[in-house]
C-alpha cells in the first residue's frame, strides 16, 4: 500500500527571475507504507527539494502530493498539521537545537502540537529511548553535548512528534561506522514499532543496501529508476551511467558474475555475497 | 638518513574540563584526548590517520599545527622542537608556514569574497612581493583545478569546489606538510573524490607530505601508511595491507575495513581462507576469481 | 527573497568604470552626491540626468538591471513625491483645494524634482560604486583612503578586515537563517500568527541556533586565519595594490568640470542680461526649485 504518492510534481525556484531554476520536472513516485525507501542521487538532482516538499515546506509549482490519498495542499492553512504527520530530519539537524535542556528541546515539537504536558513527557521519554539518550542527558543543555549526541537529540525532536512518515536527509553524515549503525538501526526499530514509513536520503550506497527495502534514484530533476534494493543494485552499469556507485561488494559480485561465476541471492551486502559464495562453493561440489 | 619531518615523543594532551573543546562528534572531554603518542613521519609520506569520532585524531592534528599545546611530550617539526618554552610568535608562524591545515567545514575557512583573493590571503600574510603572490596564486589554483573559478564568489561554489579553494589557499603558502582534518566529511561523493585526487597529486607530484585525518576506511586504504588511533593511543601503524588485515581489532574499535576486505574476512570466518593480502576492490576480485575458478 | 535583490550587488565587467581605481570611484561618488544636492533648477537637473545616463552607458550595466535596482525604492519615491505635493505651499491660486488639502503648481514641480533627485542619487551612486566595484576593491579603497588615520592609532586595517569578512559571510548567514527557519517550521513552529509578543517569542528558536552557529563559524574562521599566518597588518602585503592611473586623473578633471558646471548653472541666473533672462525658455530652465 502506498503511504505517499507524488503525482506529476514540478517545482521551479525563483520563478520569473533571472535566477529561475527547475528543481523537479514532472516527478511521479510512490512510497510504500511500513517500508524504508532510500532516495539517492547527486547533489542538485532534486532530492533535497523533494524532501522539503514532502514536509510541506515548498509547495509544488504543479502536481499533487497525496498522503493516504489526500492532497496535502488541499487546505493550505492547515499545512502545519501535515508537518506533524510527515516528520523531516534535515541535514546536520544539530543546528536546530535551542532550548535550555535536552528534555525541553525534544518536547518543542509535541508542545507545538498542543499536547498536554503529561503526553509531551511521554513522547520525550519514548523518543529519547529510540535514539539512546539516557535520563541524565535529558537534563543537560544541548550545547554541552558532543556532535554525535546532538545529532541524536535533534532526531529525537522529530520522532517525539510521532510522525507516520519520517523523512531523513543524510542523518548519518559525518559519523563513523558505529555512529551510523546506531542511528540507522534506530530507524529500523521505529518502523517496526510504529508501522511508520521512512524515506532516507543518503550518499552511502552501503547504508542503503543494509537498511532500505526500496530505492528511488533521482537524476536531473527527475526520477531515474525506482524499485527494490535488489532490483536497483543488481546492475552496476545502470547507476554508473549517471555517475553513481553501487556498494563496493555489489561491484565485486557483479565482476565475479562477469567472470562466469554464477552467484545468486542478495548480492549487495557483505552478508548476502558471503552466503552466495558459500552456496556457490557448495554447488560446485567441494 | 631519511628526512623526518614530524616526530612526536611521549605526546599527550588532556582537555581542561569545562572550557575544553569537544571533538566534533561523540567527543568525551573527561578522558585524556591523547596519551603517549610516538610517531615518526618521513618527508613525502602519504599517511592516513584513522579513528572513530572522538578517538583523539583531530586533537593530534591540532597539536602539530600549534592550535593546541601538548600537556606532556615533545613534537619536532623538521627537527625543531615546537614545544620549546622559548618559542616566539615569529617561531609559531614559521611552523605554520611549514605545516598547512585544511579543515572540515569548507565555509568556515574562506576569508575573502573572491576566490583568488582568498588564495592570496596566506601569501599576503607572509609579506611576499606582489609578483610572487600572483605567481603562487595562479600556480595553486592550477594545482587545485580551480583556475576557471578565480574570479567567482566562494559562496556560489559547491562544497567540493570550496574545499579545493581552501586547499589552494594552503598550497600557495608552499608548506612541506598539509594536514587534512576530516576535510572530506561534509562533502558529497563527487566532492570527496575531487579532494582525494588533489591529495594524491600533491603527494606524488609536488612531493608534499600529506596527513589525512579521516574515519572513512576507503580513504585510508588509498594512503601509503595508516595510523589507527583509538582512545587517544596509536593502536595500529603500518601499510594499509597490514593494518586492514586486523579486521577483528578494527571492529572492536568501532571501525570497519573496506567492503571487499570485510567480505574476505567473513569468508575466512566460515573457513574459506582466500588471500589475506588482498585489499583493494580489484585485488579482492582477482583473489576471489582465482579461488572460485579452481573449484 | 533577499538573495534576488539587485540593488547593492556587484556585476563583474570590464568597462571604463569597472577599471577605475576604487578610491577614485569613492571620491567621485562623494562629488556626485554633493552635486545632486546642489542642483537647484531644471538646467542643473538636466546636466545631472545627462551625466547619469552617460555613466550608466559607460558602465555597460543593462537598463533592465538598473530598472530592477530601482524597484525596491519605488515606494520611497512615491512617498517623497506625495509628501512634497501636499506639503509645499505656493503663491497664487491652488490647483486643487479640497477640505484642508491644497495642491499648488509649486508642489507638483517640487515633487517631480525631489523624486528625480532620489532617482539620480540611487542610479548614479550604485552605477559608480556598488554595481561596478567588487566589495573587496571597495574595502581596499576605503582602507587606503582612511590609512592616514593609522597615524593617530585608528585600527583601519582591522575595520577593513571586519568588513571583508562580513561581506563574505552575509550570503552564508542568509542561507543558514532560511535553513533554521525551515527546520523549526518542520517542528511546528509558527512565525506568522499571534500578537507582537508571541511573534517575538517565536523568533527565539531561530535566533539562538543562528547565534550559536555564527559564534562557531567565527571561532573556526579565526583558527583557520591563524593557521594561514594572519597577524593583522603586520608585515602584510597585498595581491592587488591600488595605483592611480592616467584615466583616474582624467575622471578627476571630468568630475571637477561637472561639479563646477552644477555650481555655475545654479547661481548664474541672477547675472544674465535682461533680454535673455526674460525669455520663456530661460525662465523655465532656471526656475528655482
Q: CATH homologous superfamily of the largest domain in chain A - what is it?
A: P-loop containing nucleotide triphosphate hydrolases
Greatest interface and its residue counts?
A-B, 39 and 43 residues
**What name is given to the CATH topology of the largest domain in chain A?**
Rossmann fold
Secondary-structure class of chain C: mainly alpha
* Physical arrangement of strands within the biggest beta sheet of chain C: 1-2
Largest sheet of chain A, order of strands side by side? Answer: 6-7-8-3-9-10
The biggest sheet of chain C amounts to:
2 strands, antiparallel
Quickly count the helices of chain A.
12
Poorly predicted runs of chain A: none
Multimeric state: heterotrimer
Q: Can you count the beta strands of chain A? A: 10
What structural category do the secondary elements of chain A indicate? alpha/beta
State the helical fraction of chain C. Answer: 55-70%
The rough form of chain C would be described as flat
Distance between the termini of chain C: 39 Å
Mean pLDDT of chain A: 91
> Unreliable stretches of chain C, pLDDT < 50, 5 or more residues?
none
Q: Assign an overall shape of chain A.
A: globular
Number of strands of chain C: 2
The separation of the N and C termini of chain A measures 45 Å
Radius of gyration of chain C: 25 Å
Q: Quick gist of this model?
A:
With 286 residues, chain A is α/β, with parallel strands linked by helices.
Word description of this protein:
The complex is a heterotrimer of chains A (286), B (295) and C (289). Chain A is an alpha/beta fold and 286 residues long. Chain A contains 12 helices and 10 strands. Chain A has helices at residues 47-54, 79-85, 102-112, 117-131, 135-138, 147-159, 177-194, 205-211, 229-233, 236-240, 248-258, 270-283; strands spanning 2-13, 21-32, 36-40, 62-67, 70-71, 86-89, 165-169, 197-201, 214-219, 222-228. Chain A is globular. With 295 residues, chain B is α/β, with parallel strands linked by helices. In chain B, 38% of the residues lie in helices and 20% in strands. Chain B is built from 11 helices and 10 strands. In chain B, the strands form 2 sheets. Chain B has a 6-stranded mixed sheet, with helices on both faces. Chain B has a 4-stranded antiparallel sheet with strand order 2-1-4-5, with helices on one face. The longest helix of chain B is centred in the middle third of the chain and has 16 residues, at 189-204. Chain B is globular. Mean pLDDT of chain B is 90; it is low at 23-30. Chain C has a domain at 14-61 and 132-285. Chain C has helices at residues 16-19, 22-38, 42-59, 63-70, 74-87, 105-130, 135-146, 156-186, 196-202, 204-227, 246-267, 274-277, 280-285, and strands spanning 96-98, 101-103. In chain C, strands 1-2 form a two-stranded antiparallel ribbon. Chains in contact: A-B, A-C, B-C. Chains A and B meet through helix 6, helix 7, helix 11 and helix 12 of A and helix 6, helix 10 and helix 11 of B.
Amino acid at each position: 500500500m502506498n503511504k505517499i504518492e507524488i503525482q506529476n510534481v514540478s517545482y521551479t525556484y525563483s520563478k520569473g527571475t533571472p535566477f529561475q531554476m527547475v528543481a523537479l520536472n514532472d516527478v511521479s513516485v510512490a512510497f510504500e507504507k511500513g517500508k524504508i525507501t532510500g532516495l539517492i542521487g547527486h547533489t542538485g538532482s532534486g532530492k533535497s527539494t523533494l524532501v522539503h516538499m514532502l514536509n510541506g515546506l515548498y509547495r509544488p509549482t504543479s502536481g499533487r502530493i497525496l498522503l493516504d490519498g489526500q492532497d496535502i495542499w488541499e487546505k493550505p492553512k492547515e499545512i502545519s498539521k501535515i508537518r506533524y504527520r510527515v516528520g523531516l530530519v534535515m541535514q546536520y539537524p544539530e543546528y536546530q537545537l535551542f532550548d535550555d535542556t535536552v528534555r525541553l528541546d525534544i518536547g518543542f515539537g509535541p508542545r507545538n502540537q498542543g499536547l498536554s504536558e503529561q503526553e509531551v513527557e511521554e513522547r520525550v521519554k519514548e523518543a529519547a529511548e529510540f535514539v539512546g539518550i539516557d535520563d541524565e542527558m535529558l537534563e543537560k543543555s544541548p550545547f554541552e553535548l558532543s556532535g554525535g549526541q546532538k545529532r541524536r537529540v535533534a532526531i529525537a525532536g522529530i520522532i517525539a512528534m510521532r510522525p507516520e512518515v519520517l523523512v531523513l536527509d543524510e542523518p548519518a553524515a559525518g559519523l563513523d561506522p558505529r555512529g551510523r549503525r546506531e542511528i540507522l538501526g534506530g530507524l529500523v526499530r521505529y518502523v517496526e514499532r510504529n508501522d511508520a514509513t521512512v524515506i532516507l536520503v543518503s550518499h552511502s550506497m552501503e547504508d542503503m543496501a543494509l537498511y532500505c527495502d526500496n530505492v528511488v534514484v533521482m537524476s536531473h530533476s527527475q526520477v531515474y529508476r525506482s524499485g527494490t534494493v535488489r532490483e536497483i543494485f543488481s546492475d552496476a552499469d545502470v547507476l554508473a551511467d549517471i555517475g553513481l556507485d553501487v556498494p563496493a561488494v555489489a561491484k565485486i559480485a557483479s565482476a565475479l558474475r562477469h567472470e562466469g561465476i554464477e552467484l545468486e541471492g542478495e548480492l549487495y551486502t557483505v552478508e548476502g555475497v558471503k552466503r552466495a559464495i558459500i552456496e556457490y562453493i557448495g554447488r560446485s561440489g567441494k | 638518513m631519511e628526512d623526518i619531518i614530524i616526530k612526536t615523543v611521549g605526546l599527550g594532551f588532556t582537555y581542561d574540563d569545562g572550557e575544553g573543546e569537544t571533538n566534533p562528534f561523540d567527543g568525551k572531554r573527561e578522558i585524556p584526548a591523547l596519551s603517549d603518542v610516538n610517531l615518526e613521519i618521513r618527508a613525502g609520506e602519504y599517511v592516513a590517520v584513522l579513528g572513530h569520532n572522538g578517538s583523539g585524531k583531530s586533537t593530534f592534528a591540532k597539536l602539530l599545527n600549534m592550535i593546541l599545546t601538548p600537556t606532556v611530550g615533545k613534537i619536532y617539526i623538521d627537527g625543531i622542537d615546537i614545544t620549546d618554552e622559548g618559542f616566539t610568535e615569529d617561531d609559531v608562524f614559521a611552523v605554520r608556514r611549514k605545516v598547512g591545515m585544511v579543515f572540515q567545514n569548507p565555509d568556515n575557512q574562506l576569508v575573502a569574497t573572491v576566490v583568488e583573493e582568498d588564495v592570496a590571503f596566506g601569501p599576503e600574510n607572509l609579506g611576499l612581493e606582489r609578483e610572487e603572490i600572483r605567481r603562487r596564486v595562479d600556480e595553486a589554483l592550477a594545482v587545485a583545478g580551480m583556475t576557471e573559478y578565480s574570479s567567482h564568489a566562494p559562496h556560489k561554489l559547491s562544497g567540493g569546489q570550496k574545499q579545493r579553494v581552501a586547499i589552494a589557499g594552503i598550497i600557495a603558502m608552499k608548506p612541506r606538510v598539509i594536514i587534512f582534518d576530516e576535510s572530506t566529511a561534509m562533502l558529497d561523493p563527487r566532492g570527496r573524490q575531487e579532494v582525494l585526487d588533489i591529495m594524491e597529486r600533491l603527494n606524488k607530484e609536488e612531493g608534499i607530505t600529506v596527513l589525512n585525518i579521516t574515519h572513512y576506511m576507503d580513504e585510508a586504504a588509498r594512503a601509503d601508511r595508516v595510523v589507527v588511533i583509538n582512545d587517544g593511543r596509536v593502536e595500529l601503524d603500518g601499510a594499509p595491507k597490514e593494518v586492514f588485515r586486523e579486521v577483528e581489532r578494527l571492529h572492536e574499535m568501532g571501525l570497519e575495513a573496506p567492503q571487499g576486505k570485510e567480505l574476505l574476512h567473513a569468508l575466512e570466518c566460515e573457513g574459506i581462507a582466500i588471500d589475506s593480502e588482498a585489499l583493494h576492490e580489484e585485488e579482492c576480485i582477482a583473489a576471489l576469481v582465482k579461488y572460485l575458478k579452481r573449484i | 527573497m533577499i538573495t534576488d535583490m539587485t540593488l547593492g550587488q556587484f556585476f563583474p565587467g570590464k568597462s571604463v568604470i569597472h577599471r577605475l581605481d576604487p578610491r577614485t570611484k569613492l571620491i567621485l561618488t562623494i562629488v556626485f552626491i554633493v552635486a545632486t544636492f546642489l542642483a537647484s533648477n531644471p538646467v542643473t537637473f538636466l546636466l545631472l540626468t545627462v551625466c547619469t545616463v552617460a555613466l550608466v552607458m559607460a558602465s555597460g550595466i543593462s537598463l533592465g538591471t538598473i530598472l530592477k535596482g530601482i524597484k525596491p525604492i519605488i515606494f520611497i519615491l512615491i512617498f517623497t513625491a506625495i509628501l512634497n505635493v501636499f506639503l509645499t505651499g505656493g503663491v497664487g491660486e491652488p490647483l486643487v483645494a479640497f477640505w484642508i488639502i491644497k495642491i499648488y503648481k509649486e508642489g507638483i514641480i517640487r515633487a517631480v524634482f525631489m523624486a528625480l533627485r532620489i532617482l539620480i542619487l540611487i542610479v548614479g551612486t550604485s552605477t559608480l560604486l556598488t554595481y561596478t566595484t567588487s566589495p573587496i576593491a571597495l574595502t581596499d579603497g576605503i582602507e587606503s583612503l582612511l590609512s592616514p588615520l593609522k597615524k593617530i592609532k585608528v585600527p583601519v586595517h582591522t575595520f577593513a578586515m571586519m568588513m571583508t569578512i562580513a561581506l563574505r559571510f552575509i550570503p552564508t548567514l542568509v542561507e543558514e537563517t532560511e535553513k533554521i527557519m525551515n527546520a523549526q517550521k518542520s517542528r511546528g513552529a509558527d512565525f506568522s500568527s499571534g500578537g507582537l509578543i508571541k511573534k517575538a517569542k517565536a523568533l527565539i528558536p531561530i535566533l539562538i541556533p543562528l547565534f550559536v552557529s555564527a559564534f562557531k563559524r567565527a571561532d573556526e574562521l579565526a583558527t583557520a586565519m591563524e593557521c594561514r599566518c594572519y597577524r593583522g597588518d603586520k608585515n602584510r602585503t597585498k595581491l592587488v595594490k591600488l595605483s592611480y592611473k592616467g584615466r583616474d586623473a582624467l575622471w578627476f578633471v571630468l568630475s571637477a568640470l561637472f561639479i563646477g558646471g552644477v555650481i555655475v548653472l545654479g547661481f548664474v541666473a541672477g547675472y544674465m542680461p535682461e533680454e535673455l533672462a526674460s525669455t520663456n525658455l530661460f525662465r523655465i530652465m532656471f526656475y528655482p526649485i
